[in-house]
Amino acid sequence: MTTPIRVVLADDHPMYRYGVEAVLTDVPAIDLVGTASSGTELLALVERTRPDVVLTDLRMPDLSGIEVTRRLLAADAELPVLVLTMHDDDESVYGAMRAGARGYLLKGADGSELVSTIQTLAGGGTVFGPAVARRIVGFFLESSHRYREGTFPELTRREGGVLDLVAAGHRNSVIAAKLGLSEKTVRNHLSAILLKLQVEDRSAAIVRAREAGLGRDEDGPDNR
């Protein structure tokens, strides 16, 4: 028989603690070994019970969930921490991530999502709820756009995207498919790029782009 996942929970709202406890009590694979109503209580609880996964609210009356996470991971870098909160603003999300939280769920998540997230974290994975994941993806996409624009401010955002894919080794047909453009439009963008960068050809543009750090497309070049 598989040993249940040992979990502790901290939240300063009693009704939410009772609700989570009610959900987890019916799951044989999870054992809720303790609850706390503050960050200070949670630190003591973790030291006493040595859980497999920690669930914590983000905003509590003494220590925040971010500070608790930071302290827990300073003592045990492998301890999975799941933030459960009503807040999905940038400061909360990225603060929890910087502190080392391996999961972030909004309190509106249903019981099955909570259970599967706990199991994933216990297995070494990372989980961010759909709303939070969209925010993270949007942040990195915008950062990428800002980076391209800062590197080659003379290019439009679209031209920067085309140059990035060119530098990654993609053909015009692949770039067109990725960006939802026609090949003719891609060629027009490429012509504008060569003119603005004052380079003679595609190869020279690739060299300039790679020197600037572009061309790191995760899919890699299309060599077919």
Topology record:
Layout lengths: L4 E6 L3 H12 L4 E7 L2 H11 L3 E4 L8 H11 L5 E5 L4 H10 L3 E4 L4 H12 L4 E2 L1 H22 L5 H11 L4 H8 L3 H15 L4 H10 L13
Parallel strand pairs: 1-2, 1-3, 3-4, 4-5, 5-6
Helix pairs in contact: 2-3, 3-4, 7-9, 7-10, 8-9
Detailed description of the structure:
Helix content is 54%, strand content 12%. The longest helix has 22 residues, at 130-151. The chain is of the alpha/beta class and 224 residues long.
Keywords:
224 residues; alpha/beta; Rossmann fold; Arc Repressor Mutant, subunit A; 2 domains; 6 strands; 12% strand; elongated
Number of separate structural domains: 2
Secondary-structure element string: EHEHEHEHEHEHHHHH
Biggest β-sheet strands, sense, barrel: 6 strands, parallel
CATH architecture of the largest domain: 3-Layer(aba) Sandwich
Rg over C-alpha atoms, rounded to the nearest angstrom: 24 Å
What class, by secondary structure content? alpha/beta
| CATH level 1 name of the largest domain | Alpha Beta
- Helical segment tally? 10
Order of strands in the sheet with most strands: 2-1-3-4-5-6
Proportion of beta-strand residues: 5-15%
Which bin fits the share of residues in helices? 40-55%
- The general outline is elongated
Q: What is the CATH homologous superfamily assignment of the largest domain?
A: Response regulator
| Distance separating the two termini | 50 Å
Mean pLDDT: 86
* Count of strand segments: 6
Poorly predicted regions = none
CATH topology of the largest domain: Rossmann fold
